[in-house]
Specification:
Order of helices and strands of chain E: HHEEHHHHHHHHHHHHHHHHHHHHHHHH
Number of helices of chain E: 26
Order of helices and strands of chain C: HHEEHHHHHHHHHHHHHHHHHH
Shape of chain C: globular
Strand order of the largest sheet of chain E: 1-2
Oligomer: heteropentamer
Structural class of chain E: mainly alpha
Chains: A mainly alpha, B mainly alpha, C mainly alpha, D mainly alpha, E mainly alpha
Largest interface: A-D, 73 and 85 residues
Radius of gyration of chain C: 22 Å
Largest sheet of chain E: 2 strands, antiparallel
Number of strands of chain E: 2
Radius of gyration of chain E: 31 Å
Strand content of chain E: under 5%
Distance between the termini of chain E: 99 Å
Distance between the termini of chain C: 19 Å
Strand order of the largest sheet of chain C: 1-2
Strand content of chain C: under 5%
Chain lengths: ~100, ~500, ~525, ~180, ~650
């Protein structure tokens, strides 16, 4: 029986790593992956709590989140591909036509 | 094996679900109709979506009197959701009318566009009409994903694509926070149902529940991102500027309203018990939002971008109402949202008419001398600008009066002072538009206006509402006040 | 309910404006004709009020009241007392004059120009006539829009700067007033449980002195900017100089009166204690304004600027009279307001006349004008004399009463203010000397045509007013007297009852049930 | 036994996700992400969420990551070499802020640990996890479940709209878009 | 029907003005002339009638009051437009209308060749209206109407030839300086109302002794009267406000005669006499009046010595004579003051008209140094001017003698010996410079320029007529008040009802006959001395005259430069004021006040530019700010 706090701390770490990834990387794909990490850390929290209170809702929630993630990935990758086609780059620090 | 019996739906429930059903069906119908050949310049898609929206609005309006909670509170039908459903449907309808000709000009695929527009509307409605964080989240994602695509709809165009990318990346980023917040809240309260949550918060022994705080806070940031509140606003100008103008119109009104609907439900309802915790935070955010929004708009040369910043500022005003809280605050927010949608959609609608073919003329300079050459455009834009600036006799003024009055009563004097001063600052850049239209001489070839009957109808509708609510807002006021009674 | 005089009065010009907009933009003659017809009709329509008005009756007359926003308790409440009667008549007459005066002045987009003038008239009348704070604010702000466009579109070189400055400056002042109004509204609701914006209700409400201070300041700043009082005056010269003649006329003759009117109708009766507390400051600023305005006017190279600064000086007298807070002071202030309306309006028209002929306003471009245009010179002289308050002209009555009233409460103030009498003579006559006398210095001026028949028609009523109000002001004073007495009495009574009132928490009373709300 | 497994999986998860954001080569990062997901699935198993664990592996590690890899290959991205002071600056701030956020969150939660209402919740009889989820999905969560269908449809359409056909980079100058 | 008694008198000239305006050029020169003179003439007749009616009444209530309409009534303040005729205003109204009529007639001839003939008579009639309102007023406010009205007319008439910058300038100066006086008058009125509660003469005078009591009352009345006197100095060209009068000579000569000699400038004296009740309550003020009068008399007389412009000489003599009148009032000899006012009106008008006749004859020449020897060429003018000169010099039995003598007697009797001495000295100087003028003009060799010589001609009858009439008046005018009468002379008795109300009447304090004879003799001697000196210096041995000038060159320069008073005022008042005004505008208004306003705008724009820097357009930045926001929020909850 794993204490809840362990999973929470772990999820927090993962979330943080994801967050940092978003902040430090410039490759849109990697940024996106880091976001996925953040989502998964959230999932971990759900599962952990579901376990703790022995309710099913958390897990169902995770299921929905995965669906959403899939949808996002589909659209997101499409956008990135389109971006690459237009500009031959996926580096977000080369993309600031729109500013100020 | 305890099988939970399938939900039993009464007739009224079907009406209540009408909006959801109609919109989903309409969306799919649009796709199916692709297999029926049509003339290249047919307006079939537009008409279908108009009908869909009408049906959606009507069916909900038909049972406006009742309050129902379906699927164990996953979907609620109360005066609040009715108000927003109608708001979203009308905003969507106006956007359809505006897009009618715009899509042809800019060669955007109609079917997909309208399909996404309907789905986004569906998402907004879910955000407003669901009493469970799961559905709220799903609705939000539905709306967002549809909007990501719509923003990037002009694939061949760098700005459009860049806008989509930024909006998408940051949106996903934000929903990461949002999700984490929901997870913590779920952990703190053991449920995702807003009603149950508020019940728990109400009688939980310690308000000092850190999970609750952190979770609520992250949730807040998620919504703050959607409504473009400082410092989570930075995507807004870029996304608004890059998106096709009609999309900007749609999202500036719809997405913001949806965000506020969710925010009101959550902050005022589920977290209402710990309201005093949020007051200082929200106050700070509101002040920042108003000020930063207006200040950054001051020097913009692109009307579209300027309006984007102004929409940030308006989010700030709306946050004032949220801070004020209570039924009065909520009703003020609703009132202002309705007003804001009318004038803001109108303003972007005017921009959507400017320019020929692919080009878009959205610089302040492009408006030079337009006021006298195109009296209707001039009049409409002037009224919208004055209304945004909160000058009587326009709806914006009434909205501000009610909103700031409520805040004053709630004792938020500093917030109100900052607010009114901000509205003075804002008037400066709104006036610049009128200056350009009436007082500047056009340089270069004058801006063309692509007139189309539907767009004109849409504009006139916005204009009429903006003026009518300015001189006689009684009905709207009543609706706003009634619509929040269910919420509390 | 009898015939709704005031509603007609307010909305007839608006309808007229709409009518004008329906005319083809090219039909220059028709546009001018119709706008003149409408403006004159409005004037004729307003004249009966002079007789129908019952002089010795203090309360509102021709009152109208309908529900407007029951949910908030705002109502469409119009009414007229002696003060507003005079200001309404001033408005209608001056607008008619301005419209006729603008016949030849406006060549660019006359349709919009005249329509806006009429719309402006509607706004001003509404401001003078409404008895509901929210309605008042609506008119007060809405009025800015046409004026802003008039300055910005038909103005001179720096018109845009002037227009925007005018709009923002005035608005910056009034938003705080809006906050104060809302505060009052919720105060009313918390104290009495009644949600209403009705002025009468507020006249009956006791407000704690500590609260009054802030509310008064909020109102006072808004009005002071409109007046304009000394430190808040800089928008005025710009606006006046850039505005087209008709615009300047309306601006000077009527718009500025909004401020003083506001003090008389709102700031003083509503917040008597605070008003008394700040009286020395306001009176001081008024005196500074009188002298300062005169001095600055003296050194202006530009005719319109000179007149603009003279307005600052004149309105200083109004404020001083108001804050003498006695019968003579108030009556004098009111007379001064009317006089300033007539005289300064006429002065701007006069400047407009030569501007039309020479397209310059620089004093140095003129000189010896009396020779080519003697009639013009004579008219100018008369107007100028009334503006410097020569006995027998209207200007004297106002200044005299103001100074008399002031003297009775504070001789030293009166002494300082009286020095304005000397300075006004100085700058006006000097200007006149440089423009009218001496040899004709510029060849262009040698053949200037004298006043045309239309122009004489424009000035005739003003000259008549100047002398009539100077020689027989009694009918006017008699009509205003009861109202002014009432204001004074109201101030005293309210001061007494507010003296010991406690501050009230705004959320003391529950929110009224949606839908009901106001139950005045 | 479980705690040690948990710790192991946790360590694996953390290190792999760290490598995701640290590694230069996108492909490698993607692969590390797969690894991270798999270890997460392991943790799910330990938390007695078999179904979720499986789905995690199948959907995430399987479908989604494959999509990622495909895209990366398709765009055959070079290593993104970053250098220059402002890059380093961004790195620094990024790490700092991220760390601060996590630290603050943990501090806040840890300040006084209030583990919610579930202490009294006794672990009930172990029911077939998958079955329960299935029941819940098609009864209580029927409505959201339907919504997800809509969501996926939208995603599909969006994907097609944006990515179908070739979009040539616009010739210089005629980007007549918003200025 | 009964004709209206009083209001018709000012109404007639006003009606003339109105007609003049309405008919415009349709009535030709002749018509204009008839209209103007007719109006004033009729006014004179009505005045005569009114005075006769007044005289018919018993001495107890010798006052006709006529209220026309209520002017203003505000609270406890109420003023009517109403007129009053009592012995004092009777004298004034007769003088004004009478002399006014003669001057009108004279002007017809004098201005015959003037282009804007009509405008001239328009102004002239307007002036008559204002002046009559002033003298007939029943309360201070109506008087103030006339007071400022005459100021306006003098402004218009001085600047009549508006194309001459000097004229326009002089007009403005006159008006502004008068305004300074009016400022005093206004405040004086306020004080009277504040204490007396009314502005009606009889009310104020009746109540004054009862309200102005105690130390406070004394201070108040002193201040009030001083303020009123300030008004008088402005109107009547006394120190310190006399400087406008000499410049006023830019106007046409009849104007100088009417306004700046006979009528308007005496308004101040009239006002002081009218308020004698108040002034006698304030001894300090009376002293001030006396001293100022004496000082002005002396100052002006000395300047008069050195002037070469014939009109300016007369102007300064006017100032000096007005000083006499104030001297009289100051010592309490109000009757004497009014008496001198009347006689002065006759001979000074005559002098101006005579001078005008000379100028007319010399086609515009005004410089004494280019005249001389005109006695034979202009017999009528010469004769009349000589009479006037004798009158002003105070030679019996000419009018001036009686009044001037009475003033000196009054001063002596009331114990103001200093004042009296000054009076005597001034009498000498007056006689001197007046005869200097006479001699330089009419006697000695002709110094005329050639073409002046050529056009030289005696004036037309329309001008000579008035001269003769005035000459007669200058002779007999004084006989109404011969000295050494028991119970006062006729004129004194006539004014008794007005002045007896005063606390003490100086001239009533009769001197012993012996003393009075002595004084008479002394003043006559003084006058004759002056005359003799004049003849010696300017006729018999001009050389010695110039020698004398060399000797006292300092004084001479001083007098020629009029003591540099104008320059002084310019340096002390005018320039600093202008500089301050400029500073107010250029620095304060533009930079400080408006600068603040615009400053706000610039600040905001600066802030805008700053904020926009954060909007870099990089997703990374945006995410960073997002995260920072979250961190901040967390921090808030961590710390609260």
């Amino acid at each position: 029986m794993i204490p809840l706090s362990w999973s929470l701390i772990l999820s927090a770490l993962v979330f943080g790593i994801g967050l940092i990834g978003v902040l430090v990387r410039r490759n849109a794909l990697i940024i996106f992956m880091s976001i996925e990490l953040m989502l998964n850390s959230a999932n971990l929290v759900f599962v952990a709590f579901a376990r703790a209170m022995n309710s099913i809702d958390g897990q169902v929630f995770v299921f929905f989140v995965m669906t959403v993630a899939a949808a996002e990935v589909a659209v997101g990758l499409a956008i990135i591909v389109n971006l690459f086609r237009l500009r031959e780059t996926v580096f977000v620090d080369e993309i600031n036509l729109l500013k100020n | 094996m305890n099988l939970v019996p399938p939900p039993t739906l009464l007739a009224v429930d079907w009406y209540a679900l009408g909006a959801v059903l109609a919109l989903s069906v309409g969306a799919m119908l649009l796709l199916l109709l692709e297999f029926v050949p049509k003339k290249p310049d047919s307006n079939r898609a537009a008409i279908v979506s108009l009908i869909t929206l009408a049906a959606a609005g009507w069916s909900v309006f038909h049972v406006r009197g009742t309050a129902r909670s379906l699927f164990g509170g996953m979907f609620v039908h109360d005066s609040f959701s009715v108000f927003f459903t109608l708001l979203f449907c009308s905003v969507a309808a106006v956007s359809v009318l505006l897009s009618w000709d715009y899509l042809k000009r800019t060669r955007i695929h109609q079917t997909e566009y309208y399909m996404l527009l309907l789905s986004a509307t569906l998402g907004m409605i879910l955000m407003a009409a669901s009493n469970d964080l799961i559905t709220v989240f799903l609705g939000l994602e539905l709306m967002s994903i549809a909007l990501y695509v719509m923003v990037g709809f002009r694939r061949g165009q760098l700005e459009s694509n860049e806008a989509a990318l930024k909006y998408f990346l940051l949106g996903a980023f934000a929903s990461g926070f949002l999700l984490y917040g929901i997870a913590l809240l779920y952990g703190a309260t053991g449920t995702t149902n807003i009603a149950a949550m508020s019940a728990f918060v109400a009688d939980s022994p310690l308000k000092e529940n850190p999970l609750l705080i952190v979770g609520g806070l992250l949730l807040l940031t998620g919504f703050a991102f959607k409504v473009a509140a400082v410092p989570f606003h930075m995507w807004t100008p870029d996304a608004y500027e890059g998106a096709p103008t009609t999309v900007t119109a749609f999202m500036s009104a719809g997405a913001k309203a949806a965000g506020f609907a969710a925010l009101l439900r959550v902050v005022l309802h589920s977290l209402g018990g710990v309201h005093e915790y949020w007051t200082p935070v929200l106050t700070a955010i509101a002040m920042l939002t108003m000020t930063v929004g207006n200040i950054s708009a001051l020097l913009q040369t692109s009307v579209k971008r300027m309006l984007a910043y102004s929409s940030i500022a308006h989010a700030g005003y709306l946050l004032v109402a949220v801070v004020a809280g209570g039924p009065e605050g909520a009703s003020a927010a609703l009132f202002y949202l309705a007003v804001y949608s009318a004038m803001n959609v109108g303003a972007f609608g005017v921009l959507a008419l400017l320019g020929r073919g692919q080009e878009e003329r959205v610089l302040v300079a492009d408006l030079a001398g337009l006021g006298f050459r195109q009296p209707l455009i001039g009049l409409a834009m002037t009224v919208f600008m004055l209304s945004l600036g909160g000058i009587p006799p326009t709806a914006g003024f009434m909205g501000k009066v009610y909103l700031f009055g409520v805040a004053l009563r709630a004792g938020l004097v500093p917030l109100v002072i900052v607010g009114v001063l901000n509205s003075v600052v804002s008037v400066f850049y709104y006036l610049r538009i009128t200056v350009a239209m009436y007082m500047d001489e056009p340089r270069g070839e004058p801006t063309q206006v692509s007139w189309a009957v539907p767009a004109a109808i849409a504009l006139l509708a916005c204009l009429a509402l903006t003026l009518w609510w300015g001189v006689q807002a009684h009905q709207l006021l009543l609706q706003a006040q009634r619509s929040v009674t269910g919420l509390m | 309910m009898s015939f709704p005089w005031l509603t007609w009065l307010v909305f007839f010009p608006l309808a007229g404006a709409a009518l004008i907009m329906l005319l083809p933009a090219t039909a220059n003659r028709a546009i001018r004709l119709w706008s003149t017809v409408i403006a004159v009709a409005e004037m004729v329509f307003s004249l009966p009020l002079w007789w129908r008005f019952v002089p010795d009756q203090a309360g509102w007359q021709f009152e109208e009241k309908r529900a407007w926003l029951p949910a908030l308790g705002a109502s469409y409440h119009l009414g007229m007392d002696g003060v507003s009667l005079m200001l309404v008549l001033l408005t209608t007459v001056l607008t008619a004059v301005a419209v006729i005066g603008a016949w030849s002045a406006v060549d660019k987009r006359p349709r919009e120009f005249f329509a806006l003038l009429l719309a402006l008239e509607a706004g001003m009348l509404g401001t003078f006539l409404c008895l509901d704070l929210l309605l008042f604010y609506v008119f007060w702000e809405a009025m800015l829009i046409p004026m802003y466009l008039l300055i910005g579109v038909w103005g001179g070189q720096r018109r845009i700067y002037a227009a925007v400055k005018f709009f923002l400056y005035t608005m910056a002042g009034s938003v705080l007033m809006l906050v104060a109004i809302l505060w009052l509204y919720y105060l009313q609701r918390a104290a009495t449980g009644v949600a209403t914006f009705d002025l009468d209700a507020f006249y009956a409400l006791a407000i704690a002195p500590s609260t009054q201070q802030w509310l008064f300041l909020a109102f006072a700043v808004a009005f002071a900017i409109k007046v304009p009082m000394f430190p808040f005056h800089t928008w005025l010269p710009d606006a006046h100089v850039e505005a087209p003649t008709a615009g300047s006329v309306i601006l000077a003759a009527i718009l500025l009166k909004m401020g003083t009117f506001g003090f008389l109708r709102y700031a003083i009766p509503l917040f008597p204690n605070a008003s008394a507390q700040f009286a020395p400051w306001i009176a001081g600023l008024a005196i500074v304004g009188i002298i300062y305005g005169a001095l600055v006017a003296m050194v202006q190279p530009d005719l319109k600027k000179l007149v603009a600064y003279s307005s600052v000086s004149h309105l200083g007298f109004c404020m001083l009279g108001l804050y003498a807070m006695n019968a003579q002071g108030l009556a004098g202030a009111m007379m001064q307001m009317l006089n300033h309306g007539v005289s300064t309006g006429a002065l701007f028209l006069l400047v407009g006349v030569i501007y039309e002929r020479r397209h310059t306003r620089a004093i140095s471009d003129f000189g010896g004008l009396w020779k080519p245009m003697p009639v013009y010179g004579a008219v100018f002289l008369v107007v100028l004399l009334s503006s410097i308050g020569l006995p027998g002209t209207n200007g004297f009555v106002g200044e005299f009463l103001v100074l008399l009233g002031t003297f009775r409460v504070h001789p030293i103030w009166a002494a300082w203010a009286s020095s304005g009498v000397i300075l006004s003579a100085l700058y006006m006559l000097w200007m006149f000397q440089r423009v009218m006398f001496g040899p004709v210095t510029h060849v262009e001026n040698e053949k200037l045509p004298d006043l045309s028949r239309r122009e004489r028609l424009v000035f005739a009523p003003l000259l008549i007013l100047i002398f009539w109000m100077g020689v027989m002001p009694q009918p006017i004073l008699a009509r205003m007297q009861p109202t002014l007495d009432r204001t004074l009495r109201l101030a005293e009574v309210r001061a007494a009852m507010s003296a010991h009132a406690r501050p009230v928490r705004l959320d003391a009373a529950p929110m009224p049930v949606p839908g009901e709300g106001a139950r005045p | 036994m479980t705690p040690y497994l948990f710790i192991g999986f946790a360590a694996l998860l953390v290190t792999s996700s760290l490598l995701v954001i640290l590694h230069r080569n996108p492909v490698t990062s993607a692969l590390f992400l797969v690894l991270a997901f798999c270890s997460l699935a392991g943790i799910y198993l330990l938390l007695q969420a078999e179904f979720v664990g499986m789905v995690q592996i199948i959907v995430y590690a399987g479908a989604i990551m494959v999509l990622f890899l495909f895209v990366i290959m398709y765009l055959n991205l070079s290593h993104d070499i970053e250098s220059g002071v402002q890059i380093a600056l961004r790195r620094g701030t990024g790490w700092l802020v991220g760390a601060v956020v996590v630290a603050e969150g943990l501090a806040l939660v840890g300040r006084h640990w209030f583990p919610g209402p579930f202490l009294e919740a006794i672990p009930g009889p172990r029911v077939g996890n998958t079955q329960q989820i299935g029941q819940a999905l098609y009864t209580r969560y029927l409505f959201p479940f339907e919504i997800t269908s809509m969501l996926l449809l939208v995603a599909m359409v969006g994907l097609i709209v944006i990515a179908k056909g070739r979009t040539a980079p616009p010739a210089a100058g005629d980007s007549g878009g918003p200025r | 029907m009964t004709l209206p008694v009083l209001w018709i008198i000012p109404a007639l000239p006003l009606a003339a003005v109105a007609l003049n305006l309405l008919l415009g050029d349709r009535l030709g020169r002749r018509g204009t002339a008839w209209l103007a003179c007719g109006a004033v003439g009729t006014a004179f007749l009505f005045a005569l009638r009114a005075v006769l009616m007044l005289a018919a009444r018993p001495e107890a209530d010798r006052a006709l009051v006529e209220t026309v309409w209520t002017w203003m009534r505000v609270g406890d303040f109420s003023v009517d437009v109403s007129f009053l005729l009592d012995p004092l205003s009777a004298v004034m109204v007769l003088v004004v209308t009478g002399v006014g009529f003669l001057i009108h007639v004279y002007s017809v001839g004098y201005m015959a060749h003037e282009a804007s003939f009509r405008r001239f008579f328009l102004y002239l009639n307007l002036f008559m209206f204002a002046m009559l309102t002033l003298v007939l007023a029943d309360n201070f406010l109506v008087m103030f109407v006339g007071w400022e009205g005459v100021g306006l007319c003098s402004y218009l008439l001085i600047g009549f030839w508006y194309e001459r910058p000097a004229a326009a300038e002089a007009g403005k100066k006159a008006f502004v300086v008068n305004r300074i006086g009016d400022f005093g008058f206004l405040l004086g009125m306020f004080m009277l109302f504040a204490w007396g509660g009314s502005l009606k003469y009889e009310r104020v005078f009746a109540i004054a002794p009862h309200v102005f009591t105690g130390a406070a009352g004394l201070t108040a009345i002193t201040i009030a009267t001083l303020l009123l006197f300030l008004g008088a100095t402005g109107k009547s060209a006394q120190i310190p406000l006399y400087t406008w009068l000499p410049d006023a000579m830019e106007g046409p000569t009849p104007v100088s005669a009417l306004i700046h000699a006979a009528t308007m400038v005496t308004a101040g004296v009239y006002m002081v006499a009218r308020c004698h009740v108040l002034f006698q309550l304030a001894p300090t003020t009376l002293e001030v009046v006396a001293v100022v009068g004496a000082a002005t008399a002396l100052l002006a007389a000395t300047i008069g010595i050195a002037q070469n412009d014939i009109k300016r000489v007369l102007a300064y003599s006017t100032v000096s004579q007005l000083g006499y009148m104030f001297m009289a009032c100051g010592v309490g000899a109000f009757t004497a003051g009014i008496f001198h006012l009347m006689t002065h009106a006759f001979f000074k008008a005559l002098l101006f008209l005579g001078a005008g006749s000379v100028i007319h004859a010399l086609s515009g020449e005004q410089d004494l140094r280019r005249m001389g020897g005109l006695a034979k060429r202009l017999p009528w003018t010469h004769a009349t001017v000589l009479i006037a000169t004798l009158a002003i010099a105070g030679i019996p039995p000419f009018a001036g003698f009686f009044s001037k003598d009475e003033i000196l007697a009054g001063a002596f009797a009331s114990g103001h010996y200093g004042v009296w001495l000054v009076g005597v000295v001034v009498a000498t100087i007056t006689a001197f410079y007046m005869f200097r003028m006479y001699i330089l003009c009419f006697q000695g060799p002709s110094r005329l320029s050639h073409e002046a010589e050529h056009h030289l001609h005696e004036s037309p009858p329309s001008m000579i007529g008035p001269l003769v009439a005035l000459a007669l008046l200058s002779i007999v005018g004084g006989w109404v008040g011969p000295p050494l009468q028991e119970g006062g002379h006729a004129f004194e008795r006539w004014l008794k009802p007005v002045f007896e109300s005063g606390a003490h009447e100086a001239s009533a304090v009769h001197l012993a006959p012996g003393t009075e004879w002595a004084l008479i003799a002394l003043s006559v001697v003084a006058a004759i001395a002056g005359i003799v000196i004049a003849f010696r210096l300017y006729l018999q041995s001009p050389a010695s005259g110039t020698a004398l000038q060399e000797r006292f060159s300092f004084f001479h320069r001083m007098w020629v430069n009029k003591y540099r008073v104008d320059e002084f005022y310019d340096a002390v008042v005018v320039r600093p004021l202008a500089a301050f005004a400029n500073w107010c505008w250029r620095f304060w208004d533009t930079s400080v006040v408006d600068g603040t306003v615009n400053g706000v705008g610039y600040t905001l724009e600066g802030a805008s530019a700053l904020v926009r820097l954060f909007q870099t357009g990089f997703v990374g930045t945006y995410a960073l700010f997002f995260a920072l926001g979250v961190a901040a929020l967390l921090l808030h909850f961590l710390t609260h």
